[in-house]
Structure formats: C-alpha cells, structure tokens
Write a structure and sequence with these properties.
The complex is a heterodimer of chains A (267) and B (267).
Chain A lengths: L1 H18 L16 E4 L11 E4 H5 L4 H8 L12 H5 L13 E2 L2 E2 L13 H7 L5 H12 L13 H6 L25 E3 L9 E3 L1 H8 L21 H5 L18 H4 L7
Antiparallel strand pairs in A: 1-2, 3-4, 5-6
Chain B lengths: L1 H18 L16 E4 L11 E4 H5 L4 H8 L12 H5 L13 E2 L2 E2 L14 H6 L5 H12 L13 H6 L25 E3 L9 E3 L1 H8 L21 H5 L29
Antiparallel strand pairs in B: 1-2, 3-4, 5-6
Classes of the chains: A mainly alpha (267), B mainly alpha (267).
C-alpha cells in the first residue's frame, strides 16, 4: 500500500518535473520564503527534522562575506554538508552558536549537542523545524516591519536599510576574521548592454563590497578584476551563474531589470 | 490487491488527461466569468466562503504589472497562498485594501481582520463571495457598457479603452513601486509564421508594456529579449505557456487568430 503510494507520488513528481519547463511564470515565493534554505543531508538520516535556514534573519545582522567566506558556508543548498559534530566543535553554525557568543546582550544558543536530552528539544527545534510556517512568517513580518519596503524578494530594500543605518551588518568575528588594510574602491562603471535600446548596467563596487568584501565574488565566479576578463550573458545569469548566483535566491532578484540596467540612453 | 487498484486508477487518470478536451468545442465563458479566479487555499478550511476575484474589476483601474510584479500575485490559481495574516499586514490584497488607501475619493475597505464575526460581516462577503453570481453578472454589464466592445473574453476591447483614455490604469503604488528609468519600447516586429498561408504575427512591445512593463514577461516567460532566443510553438501557447500565460484566461483569448497574425501575406 505504502509502496503504491510512493510510486504514485514519484510518477506525479516526474510528471511535474517534465511539465515544469519554460514559458510559464514561476510561482513567486512569499516574502518570508525568499532566501529560505532547507538543509537535510544528515538530519533525516539521524531521525531529526531538516534545518530550515532563513537568510533574512541573519542578513539583517551579518554581512554575506562573514558567513560565506570567513565561516565557509557554501552557496548551493547541500554543498557544505554540515554535520552536528562540526557545529559542536565550533565550525559552521557553531562558530557563533556556541552558547558563549553574545549578540545584542543575549547569549547565542549552542547549535547541536552530542546526546540531546528532552530538555534540549526546544533548542533543537530552533533550527530543526519544518512545521511552524505561520510563526516563522509572523517573526519575519515583525522583524522587517520598520525596514524600507521593496517590491521583490523579501519585500525589504536591504540596500537602503543598510545605507540608512537601520541595520549594521557585522563583518568581523574575533578569532576567525582577519583585519586587512582597506582597499580603495573603484568608481562605479558601466557594463554595456548588447541589445539596442536596453540601458547599460551601472555596476557599483561600493554597494557590493559592503556585504561581500572582495572574496565572495572574486576570483570566483568573476575570475578577473579587469573589466571584460569574464564573459557572460544574461542567459547564464538567469541560469543562476555570475550575478545570478546571489541575485536570484537571496539578493534582489534579476526580475528588477532597471535596478541594474539604469544608464540613460544617449540619443 | 490495493496496488492493482492504484495502478488502475492511475492509468484511468492518465488516459483521461490525454483525451481531455481534444476535438470538442470548449464551453465559452460568459463575459463576466472571463478572468474570474476562485481562491480557496485556506478559506473553506477556515469556515468561510472562497474568494472570487474578478480581473475585470481590477484591470480597468490598475496595470497587470502592478499586482503581478510589485505586489507579487502569482499567475496560477492558488499559487500565491494568500493568508488573512498577509492581508492584515499589508501584503497581497492588503497592499491597497487596508482601510486607508483612497481610490476615486473613496476609502478602500480593509481586507480580512481578526475581529469580525465570520458569518455575517458584509465586508467579508465582498471577496468571500456568498451572493448569487447573478449579482456579479449584473454588476458586470452595468460596468461594461461604458467601454468599447470586443468579441471575445470579457467582450470589452481593453486595448482600445486604454488607447482612448477611457481607462487609465495606475502603475505605481507609493512606498512599494520603484521609480525606474523609462526604456523606449522597441518598434513593432514580425514573428514569422511557420505555416504557409498563415499571416506572420506583428508583435507590439508598445501595446504590451502599457500593462506589463518588462517584468511580467521577462525573464521568466520569455527568458531572452533577443528575437529567437525562445523557441515555442502554437501548441505550447494553446497549452497556457508563453503568450498563453495571459492570452487564455485574462487577456483576449487566442481564438481571435488574426488579432496577432496580422501581417498581410506577400503574394
């Protein structure tokens, strides 16, 4: 009986996969779902719910660079293969979630433990939880209530929120991050559009480095620092490569054409 | 035994799917029914009537882009999963229907609340429709008599209504929409027909952008902006993809062949 059900689900799933092709509007994620990552390589096997990680909760407090570079989280779901043992030893989530670090006068709860007892259940559920969507959404709405609104993604203009000083993302972790001499920023420059009538892109290193430093983008996915070293097309970007690596799932989505294509056209 | 039963059910369903609606004339919707969407992700479960949304009422006042991009409504029935909670917090319907927004010197009623007694509040019934559809039909005819007639869909030539200034769809919501640079619409171009004798399509970006900006169609439905990047067929369009994403259910339906296939054939 159960097997028949599984077969049915698989066939439905495969049909869905075949049908999920081009030419249709994708289902738009709800604001709180944008940047949500389900991590389940090891959880399910260990008999615990997968971890649901919300980017919004963390990006309001930390830079992208801090987690994706200094701590070393990958940028594809499942790529990091985080284990409880890592967290317990102070890696990945456990870098901050160690029961010692303080943030906003509160001690940050410790991620994972070797032999969790019944009392730990609430702590486990802070990350290993799939079944509290309404609470998650309410938490989200409360967090972002005062932030400037945006029409896509999380519905938050994170760039403006940072500019206005409403959020001050931390970029340094004592004992892990290294202090380096600040590098002088290149001025904004244009990336020419290849299509007549389409405005050129104005790219701002300044806006990007606030969150990413150098290392999130260079040398991968952008190998060169000289304009023109890396060749890429909008199709690749829409496919999640280059700019699309972030401007798809976490940073404002590429649907907002003129947010990048904004150089007035010479006539 | 049960397994066989499931296999049979599955086979019957798939056969049904394959034969559905080939070779017969579909039932034509009444003008007021065209673009009607029944939204029932949560309503009936919560003990209230489903929402019945009329595109005609809203498209006479707002662009498609405003709701489907800036506000973020999906384009498939049920895809958006709107909750009362969202509306009350100013998302989805609640973006405008908040008891504060003024349209045409009237305050727009607030969508959803925690305080109403579900059953009898006339405000609930404005969307959670319990009246006879006859009432909607009467309202529609009263509404439609102001506009130039068309022969399909709502029986209204929306394009002409906009061109002649009878309707001036709003494309901006303060605090949510973004002021973006205008991109000059590309000149009308032809899409070659693949069938001898069938006139080529003349596609007008100008006519489309009035309602859709760039973002309703690009990059999701049409990934590239360069002619020829997307390959698609009439069969796919009839299946609700590409042009069919709108021109089946809301925009004028494709039964009106020569409204697109307009280029006179060279003899």
């Amino acid at each position: 009986m159960r097997r028949a059900f599984i077969v049915l689900m698989i066939s439905v799933g495969l049909t869905g996969l075949v049908l999920a092709e081009e030419g249709v509007k994708k289902n738009r994620l709800r604001p709180y779902e944008f940047g949500m990552v389900t991590i389940s390589q090891n959880s399910m096997k260990a008999g615990i719910s997968p971890v649901i990680f919300d980017h919004w909760l963390h990006r309001a407090k930390f830079t992208c660079r801090l987690c994706h570079l200094d701590i070393g989280f990958g940028m594809k779901t499942g790529a990091t293969n985080i284990r409880a043992a890592n967290n317990i030893r102070g890696f990945y989530c456990g870098t901050c979630h160690n029961g010692k670090t303080t943030f906003a006068d509160k001690t940050v709860f410790a991620a994972c433990s070797k032999n969790p007892s019944k009392d730990d259940e609430e702590r486990c559920k802070k990350c290993h939880s799939t079944d509290r969507d309404e609470k998650r959404e309410t938490d989200f709405l409360n967090l972002i209530e005062k932030f400037p609104k945006e029409r896509l993604g999380n519905g938050v203009d994170w760039e403006k929120a940072e500019e206005l000083g409403m959020i001050k993302p931390i970029d340094f972790l004592e004992g892990i991050s290294l202090t380096k001499p600040p590098q002088k920023l290149q001025k904004d420059f244009t990336l020419d559009s290849k299509f007549e009538g389409m405005p050129d892109i104005i790219f701002s290193h300044k806006k990007h480095t606030v969150w990413n430093g150098c290392e999130v983008c260079h040398p991968k996915p952008f190998v060169g620092v000289k304009k023109g070293s890396t060749k890429y097309s909008m199709l690749e970007i829409f496919n999640g490569k280059f700019c699309g690596l972030c401007h798809y799932n976490v940073a404002f989505p590429v649907t907002d054409c003129q947010r990048c294509h904004r150089k007035p056209i010479q006539r | 035994m049960k397994k066989i039963f499931f296999a049979i059910v599955l086979a019957v369903c798939l056969t049904g799917l394959a034969f559905a609606q080939t070779g017969v004339k579909r039932k034509k919707q009444k003008p007021y029914e065209y673009g009607m969407v029944k939204i029932d992700n949560f309503s009936v479960k919560a003990g209230i009537a489903p929402v019945i949304f009329d595109h005609w009422r809203h498209r006479a006042r707002y662009t498609c882009r405003l709701c489907h991009v800036d506000i973020g409504f999906g384009m498939k029935t049920g895809a958006t999963q709107i909750r009362a909670l969202n509306n009350m917090r100013g998302y989805y319907c609640g973006t405008c229907h908040n008891g504060k927004t003024i349209y045409d010197n009237k305050v727009l009623f607030a969508a959803c609340s925690t305080e109403t007694s579900k059953a009898n509040d006339p405000r609930c019934a404005k969307c959670h429709y319990t009246d006879k559809l006859q009432k909607k039909e009467d309202e529609f005819y009263d509404f439609a008599k102001k506009y130039p007639k068309g022969r399909f869909g709502n029986g209204i030539d929306w394009e002409k209504a906009e061109e002649t200034g009878l309707i001036k769809p709003i494309d901006f919501i303060e605090g949510l929409s973004m002021k973006r640079m205008n991109i000059t619409a590309q000149k009308d171009f032809s899409l070659g027909s693949k069938f001898q004798g069938m006139p080529d399509i003349i596609f007008s970006h100008k006519k489309h952008t009035v309602w859709n900006g760039c973002e309703v169609c690009h990059p999701e439905i049409f990934i590239g902006i360069k002619k020829g990047t997307n390959k698609y067929t009439m069969v796919e369009i009839f299946d609700g993809k590409y042009c069919g994403a709108c021109h089946i259910s809301v925009a004028f339906p494709m039964a009106d062949c020569q409204r697109c296939h307009t280029k006179s054939v060279q003899q």
